[in-house]
Amino acid sequence: MKTVRFAIVGTGNIAVFHARAIEMVEGAELVAVHSRRAPTGQKFASEYGAEYVSDYTALLERDDIDAIAITTPSGTHADLGIQAAKAGKHVLCEKPIDITPARIDELVEACRENKVQLGAIFQSRFGPGAQALKKAVEAGRFGKLAQCAAYVPWYRSQEYYASAGWRGTWELDGGGALMNQSIHAIDLLLWLAGDVSEVSARCGTALHDNIEVEDNAVAWLSFKNGAFGVVQGSTACYPGESKRIEIKGSTGSVTLVDDMPTFWQFETESPEDEAVRALVQSAQIGGGASNPTAISNEGHRAQYEDFVGAILEKREPAIPGSDGRKAVELICAIYESSRKNSIVTL
């Protein structure tokens, strides 16, 4: 089997999950690591058996690197990804793949022009619960969708935001509880319920006095399919509860807590329904309600496995860069609605 050779750019908390995922996937190898902070980068590279490279341009010139995994602050993603694409490297980017739709469009186009793959990390989609829910939606088991919602009542301390200068800033975080924390749930909601046509929202800072962005938000959604919905996202809800997705329709209703189907009922029972309900005992993907590092590695492992397959098989990854745009577009519309105190049409 051929091997896809990765370099990780950025060595913050989430980079650990990328390095572990690469170790777990057959056909993936971590070759190099880049960080602007040499001591941190050197330590990270040593821990995972890779080489530390201080210069990003030099990293991209290397022939022994096929793909770049970007785990830097959100507002830097497109610039780094565009440089990688122009160097002929595939790009796998942490969420959000950048903080505005315009910047994401530039990244998507650069990857298209240079014929490289672009993947957006949304590991929650790979959970068995999420996959079962997607299958039920596609099979039409909900009838006409009525109400579809995402709830993320999480908590982050003052120390969390103070621990890195980019956190809680518009320039590099791109937003707060929605753009950073709730984006996984928002991505799931759009993947399951479809596109949104209108949004009305309120965003504010309820708890933290050291950030520029929101730590508390609620949005009311109108979906293109006629359903109504809600997004609630916060980092001001102590001690933090698991994210929750609700899909309700004329012939079925499901509640997914992290990846656990805590409520799964349809007008017409299907042979696989009992097995799906049993997933509540074995869910592996989720976490992060109060600690951003308290998450499973299974989702990243599954996404790396798919991305390696996409490169070797010359097919589109399960979550291409264009998919990564959708959640950011909605979040930016929520911010605009709150700022203008008006309904925003997408």
Describe what this molecule looks like in 3D:
- The chain has 346 residues and is an alpha/beta fold.
- It folds into two domains: 4-123 and 298-318, NAD(P)-binding Rossmann-like Domain (Rossmann fold, 3-Layer(aba) Sandwich); 124-290 and 327-345, Dihydrodipicolinate Reductase, domain 2 (2-Layer Sandwich), CATH 3.30.360.10.
- It has helices at 15-24, 38-47, 56-60, 77-86, 101-113, 128-138, 158-162, 177-193, 273-277, 298-313, 321-340; strands at residues 4-9, 28-34, 51-52, 67-70, 90-93, 118-120, 145-153, 196-204, 216-223, 228-234, 244-249, 252-257, 260-266, 344-345.
- Strands 13-12-11-7-10-9-8-14 form an eight-stranded mixed beta sheet. A six-stranded parallel beta sheet has the order 3-2-1-4-5-6, sandwiched between helices.
- The N and C termini lie far apart (44 Å).
Short description:
The protein has helices spanning 15-24, 38-47, 56-60, 77-86, 101-113, 128-138, 158-162, 177-193, 273-277, 298-313, 321-340, and strands at residues 4-9, 28-34, 51-52, 67-70, 90-93, 118-120, 145-153, 196-204, 216-223, 228-234, 244-249, 252-257, 260-266, 344-345. With 346 residues, it is of the alpha/beta class.
List the helices and strands and how they pair.
Elements: E1 4-9, H1 15-24, E2 28-34, H2 38-47, E3 51-52, H3 56-60, E4 67-70, H4 77-86, E5 90-93, H5 101-113, E6 118-120, H6 128-138, E7 145-153, H7 158-162, H8 177-193, E8 196-204, E9 216-223, E10 228-234, E11 244-249, E12 252-257, E13 260-266, H9 273-277, H10 298-313, H11 321-340, E14 344-345
Parallel strand pairs: 1-2, 1-4, 2-3, 4-5, 5-6, 7-10
Antiparallel strand pairs: 7-11, 8-9, 8-14, 9-10, 11-12, 12-13
Helix pairs in contact: 1-10, 4-5, 5-11, 6-8, 8-11
